[in-house]
Design the sequence.
């Protein structure tokens, strides 16, 4: 029986094409594949309680002990045994500084790029004694965590934190065992949106060369760790959401369709453009013949590209055109099973990797569903997403919580001066709620 030396990272598997693209994007384009979620719990915890919960959490999910290394031109996941490692210091803990807000800390986290080597996630806990609350910030590389996985990790961490208030439902039963890494999607059968196919997946050839793994990095990474990202909240109250849903119902479009059209039109107006490339993040969970991917923690999303013109006289007309274009593009999308060397070259070549000046919109769905029994003790939940590709200039990430919409509009170079996201956010609000006050 093979015995692994203590302290040596164990190869787990080769990254899928989707994962490799996200990993290279993160390493080679200053953290453009990074996801940060803020969740606020209405309670104060001791440092020991926060750290003890993180240690149990670390041992439950294999993905939390992963690292990524490159060997013979291919990226591989490596894992240290959670039982052999005494993590310690898994959570960065502090008290909210005077004069700072939770949004200020979120901006710091979004702007602080996870290194391409080492741990693929970061958890920060900020105690807020004045509000008798604790603000948590979970930041993950997308190569191991999509929006669904982030919500699952957060709920699991909340399961392990002490309950200070009564609740109608509490997690119970035996503690779950170790949850394995998401299966390699390159080896599975993809079922395109809109119809079913029996087209088989063609896995890439796997070889273990025995070459020593190396960290994926670039010489310029250290100089670009702080990106100066502009982040602007976009919040719609319950009353505003009701108005928006009524408007969408009359027009025959969804709220996300109208949000996307408003984002594209607002950016086009702010930037003086007639057409904007818009990438929409779609979940691929449930799109494989094999059911193993539905609930596993990992990265299983795609960015579907469309183009929107700003010449529509009515925003609802633009939303309908966007809905039709998105449905067509989504049905035509297929996973690209490529060699990692080709993916790396594409990530560093903007002309190949998707052009310039695009936007991205992502929706996480209902927070209440994701948090389950913890929804009643969480007072805020917001996600800020890294850009979908190396050249996109902005991302809008939207969540629904207690009947309201909480969005984060993130812009980076060349538009990350703080003024652009603020201007676009104001234009989006005006476009969504054109009359009266709420």
Sequence:
């Amino acid at each position: 029986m093979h015995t692994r030396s203590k302290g040596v990272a164990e190869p787990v598997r080769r990254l899928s094409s989707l994962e490799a693209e996200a990993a290279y994007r993160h390493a080679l384009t200053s953290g453009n594949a990074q996801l940060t979620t803020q969740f606020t719990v209405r309670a104060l915890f001791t440092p020991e309680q926060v750290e003890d919960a993180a240690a149990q959490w670390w041992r439950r999910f294999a993905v939390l002990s992963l690292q990524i290394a490159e060997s013979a031109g291919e990226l591989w996941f490596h894992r240290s045994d959670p039982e052999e490692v005494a993590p310690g210091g898994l959570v960065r803990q502090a008290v909210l500084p005077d004069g700072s807000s939770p949004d200020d800390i979120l901006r710091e986290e979004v702007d602080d790029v996870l290194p391409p080597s080492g741990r693929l996630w970061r958890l920060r806990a900020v105690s807020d004694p004045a509000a008798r609350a604790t603000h948590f910030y979970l930041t993950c590389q997308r190569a191991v965590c999509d929006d669904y996985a982030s919500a699952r990790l957060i709920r699991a961490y909340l399961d392990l934190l002490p309950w200070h208030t009564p609740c109608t439902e509490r997690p119970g039963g035996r503690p779950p065992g170790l949850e394995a890494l998401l299966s390699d999607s390159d080896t599975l059968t993809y079922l395109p949106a809109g119809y079913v196919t029996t087209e088989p997946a063609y896995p890439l050839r796997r070889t273990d060369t025995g070459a020593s793994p190396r960290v994926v990095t670039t010489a310029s990474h250290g100089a670009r760790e702080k990106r100066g990202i502009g982040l602007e909240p976009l919040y719609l109250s319950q009353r505003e959401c009701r108005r928006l849903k009524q408007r969408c119902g009359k027009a025959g479009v969804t709220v996300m369709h109208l949000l996307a059209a408003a984002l594209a039109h607002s950016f086009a107006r702010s930037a003086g453009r007639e057409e904007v490339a818009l990438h929409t993040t779609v979940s691929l969970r449930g799109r494989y013949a094999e059911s193993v991917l539905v609930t596993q923690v990992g990265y299983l999303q795609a960015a579907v590209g469309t183009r929107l013109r700003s010449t529509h006289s009515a925003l609802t007309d633009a939303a309908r055109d966007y809905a039709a274009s998105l449905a067509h593009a989504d049905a035509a999308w297929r996973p690209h099973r490529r060699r990692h060397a080709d993916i790396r070259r594409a990530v560093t070549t903007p002309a190949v990797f998707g052009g310039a000046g695009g936007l991205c919109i992502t929706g996480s769905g209902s927070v209440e569903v994701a948090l389950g029994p913890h929804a009643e003790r969480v007072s805020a939940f917001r996600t800020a997403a890294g850009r979908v590709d190396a050249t996109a200039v902005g991302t809008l990430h939207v969540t629904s919580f207690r009947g309201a919409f909480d969005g984060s509009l993130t812009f980076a170079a060349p538009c990350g001066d703080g003024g652009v996201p603020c201007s676009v956010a104001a234009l989006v609000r005006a476009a969504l709620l054109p009359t009266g006050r709420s």
